[in-house]
Amino acid sequence: MTLFSLRVAWRYITANRLQTLLLVLGVALSVVVFVFITALINGLSIFLTLETTSKIAHVELEPPNTVARVLTEDTRFVAQPVSTLQRKQIRNWQQVIDVAETTEGVSVISPIVDGNAFLVRSEAVRSVTIQGVEPNKVDAISNISDYVIEGTAELSTGGLLIGADLATDLGLRVGTPVLLRSERGAERLLPITGIFKVGLASLDQRVAYLSIRAARPLFELPEGITSLALKLDVPATAPAIATLLRNATQLKSTPWQEKNKDLQDATDAQGRTGNFIQAFALIAIIISIASALLLSTYRRRAEIGIMRATGISRGFVASVFVLQGVFIGAFGALAGAAAGYQLCLQLASIRGADGDPMLPIAPAEGGYALVITLTIIGAALAAVLPARAASAVDPVEAIQQ
Predict the structure, then answer these.
(1) Do 269 and 211 share a structural domain?
(2) 77 domain-assigned
(3) Whole-structure pTM value
(4) What backbone phi and psi angles, to 5 degrees, belong to 100?
(5) For residue range 111-131, what is the model confidence (pLDDT) as tens digits?
(6) 143 within 8 A of 54, measured Cβ to Cβ
(7) Of 48, 148, 229, 328, which is most buried by a Cβ count within 10 Å?
C-alpha cells in the first residue's frame, strides 16, 4: 500500500461527492445510534446502582450461622428438641468496629439492633422491621432525613421514625403514641417523632427506626448487636472488602451485590439488549458501504481495466477499494461520535419538574473509542468484497466494454 494508492482512493471518493456525503452521513447516523444506546444503557446502569447503593449498606457483618443447641441427649427421641431462645448477636462488636475502621475503603460504620415487631393502635396491627441505630448515625446508611415529610429524624428522645404508608395504615401523625410489641414479647408505648417517604414500598410500609438504646430492652440485647452496617468509598469494592473482613473477624460478611442479584440480572439483560442494537447498527454500516463500493466497481470497470493493462497489480486495485472503505468509515465514525456526544449532552440537560434528568443518560459512557474502532474495521471488511471484485476484472473485457 503506497502513497499512490492513497491518492487514487481519495480521488475516487471525492469524484462523486454527493454519494460520498450520503455514505458518510449513513455511517454517522448508525454511529449516533450506537453512541446513544451505549450511553443510555450505561447511564441507566449507573443510575440504578447509585440509587440502590445510596439507600443500603455496602457490607453487612452478622453473626455466623450456628446449629441450635440440643436440649437432651436421650436417643429415645426420634426428633430431639433444640433451643431457639438464644438470639444470635455480635458480643465483641467494639473490637469488630476497630478492625473495620482500619480497613482501607470503609467510610462509615453503624452498629444495628434489629428485629421484627408489631405496631398496635386500637384494633389495627401492622408488622414492621425495627432498625435500632445510634441517633447520630440515623443517616449513616440511608440518608433518611432527606425523605422526612413530617416531624424530624431525631431519635435521641426515644421516639419512633416510620414510613408514610405505615403511618397512613395506622392513622398515625407526629406526636401520636403507638404500642410497639417486639418479637421477644416486650412492649413499649412510643411517640411518633417523624414520618418519611422514600418511595420504596419495602421501606415506607415495613421499616421503622428507633434509637439503639430504646431497641436493646425490646429485643433483649443489653450488650450485643445484631449486625454492623458499613458504607464504602467505592461500592464496587464490596466483595473484596467483605472477604477481607470475613477473614479478619470470622463473622458472616455479605456484600450488597449478593443481596441485590436482581439488579445485576436486570443490568446484564439491558446490556445484552444494547449489544443487539449495536450489532445491527454495525451491520447497517457494513451493508451500506459494501453496496456502494460494489456499484462503484461496476461503474469504474473501464478505468480498472486500463490500470490493469498498464501493469497495475491486482493487489493495488484491491487496496484502493479497501482504502475507500476506510476513509468513509473513519469520516463517518468521527462525525457520528461527535454528533452522538452532543446529542447525549443535550438529552442529559433536559430536566423534569422535580429537577431530575428526564433520561438517565451518561454522555461520557458512549463507548466512543470502541465505536470508532469497530466502524473503521467494519468499513474495511465491508470493502473486501468490492475490492476482490475490482481486482478480478479482466482488462481486455473491461476495455472492450
Answers:
(1) no
(2) no
(3) 0.73
(4) -65, -35
(5) 999 999 999 988 889 999 999
(6) yes
(7) 328
